[in-house]
Design goal:
Blueprint lengths: L4 E6 L11 E8 L2 H14 L3 E4 L5 E2 L4 E8 L4 E7 L2 E7 L4 H10 L18 H4 L2 E2 L2 E2 L4 E8 L5 E4 L1 H4 L7 H4 L4 E10 L12 H7 L7 H15 L7 E2 L8 E2 L1 H10 L5 E3 L5 E3 L1 H7 L6 E2 L2 E3 L7 E3 L5 H19 L8 E2 L1
Parallel strand pairs: 2-5, 3-5, 4-20
Antiparallel strand pairs: 1-2, 6-7, 7-12, 8-9, 10-11, 10-12, 13-19, 14-16, 15-16, 17-18, 18-19
Length: about 350
């Protein structure tokens, strides 16, 4: 089946910031064959290709003079269940949170801390998505990707993906690999991760003494809904800046002036600072310039109040970066990909 190509398509429904830019060419693909065919046609026409899933990790600052390939593949199933290890696979176009909820409905544990994260399954390894003490790499069992240079399929294991903090081989080579499906190693037995953020406190407030994976997911969803705006109601891409990892000596210099600085010691001796705390201390929380702003409850989140352009949001992000560098000597890195 040939996927339907469209011309001059608004990308507003396909990015969670709700930025209204146009794609010169647009095609929605559901199968491996449709992916291959779309890429082949793009090569024949001399078109660049931009791959988009849920559009939750991109800031579009201009019209896209290329083929936008929207991954819309669906499918999720158990591959193997043996010796306490359950291998599940999901297609790249599967929305992430419904996939997490499906795994919980199967009685499987491992993804509960990653509940209510926007985006798709295929995008999750790109960023090594993480939340509340768990990252994709902690539950990762492999993925299948298409080599856009050769057209061949390749399976990747954990080490080959070179996962880092919000980073991976695939993010560092954005034009090379197109992720088609991802596999996760889950379990029927819960190994609860409750010590990052207010998860344990929220469970206590809810009267949960012996948490299940579903209870942990519910608690995290509750926390996230309080802190993070729903993209369907207020355009955003979740956390806009990475938490910077700095030397202990730099933390000590900051603490001398700001005793309340929030940081998390890392295994390599560095400290991961809370970017949201830095931004809030600098007075940006709740700031608004036209329709571009910083969320009133979570200073890590940049928001589009309606008609902000991607360029306006990028300008705001750059002003915040410059201010944090001047005040604290800390460089903030954007999480979303900029186009």
């Amino acid at each position: 089946m040939t996927a339907h190509w469209q011309e001059q398509v608004s990308l507003k429904p396909y990015n969670t910031f709700g930025i209204d830019v146009k794609a010169r060419h647009f095609v929605q693909v559901h199968t491996d064959d449709e992916v291959r065919e779309a890429l082949a046609q793009a090569r024949q026409r001399g078109l660049a290709v931009m791959v988009i899933g849920g559009g939750s990790n991109v800031l579009l600052t201009r019209d896209v003079d290329a083929l936008v390939l929207h991954m819309a593949s669906r499918g999720r199933h158990v591959l193997d269940d043996e010796a306490g290890r359950v291998l599940v696979e999901a297609e790249a176009g599967e929305p992430w949170h419904p996939f997490v909820q499906w795994s919980l409905q199967q009685g499987l544990c491992g993804l509960e801390n990653l509940s209510l994260i926007p985006g798709t399954v295929g995008a999750a390894p790109m960023q090594n998505v993480g939340a509340y003490g768990v990252e994709i790499k902690d539950v990762f069992a492999g993925l299948t990707a298409l080599d856009r240079q050769t057209g061949e399929l390749r399976d990747f294991g954990l080490e080959e993906c070179a996962f880092g903090y919000r980073d991976s081989l695939f993010k560092r080579n954005p034009g090379r690999w197109l992720i088609l499906r991802v596999r996760f190693a889950l379990s029927h037995r819960l190994q609860a991760h409750l010590d990052y953020g207010p998860v344990r406190q929220r469970l206590a407030e809810q009267g949960v003494q012996e948490p299940t994976a579903q209870a942990i997911s519910d608690a995290i969803c509750s926390i996230r809904r309080e802190k993070l705006p729903d993209p369907a109601e207020l355009g955003n891409a979740g956390s806009f800046f990475k938490n910077p990892v700095v030397a202990v000596e730099q933390v000590a210099r900051i603490r001398a002036e700001y005793p309340g600085v929030v940081g998390y010691p890392q295994a390599d001796g560095h400290v991961k600072l809370a970017a949201g705390w830095l931004i809030e201390q600098a007075g940006w929380k709740g700031y608004r310039d036209g329709d571009a702003g910083v969320h009133r409850l979570q200073s890590l989140v940049l928001v589009n109040y309606g008609q902000a352009s991607g360029a306006q949001l990028h300008d705001l992000a750059q002003r915040i970066q410059a201010d944090i560098l001047a005040r604290f000597g800390v460089e903030l890195e954007m999480e979303p990909n900029l186009y």
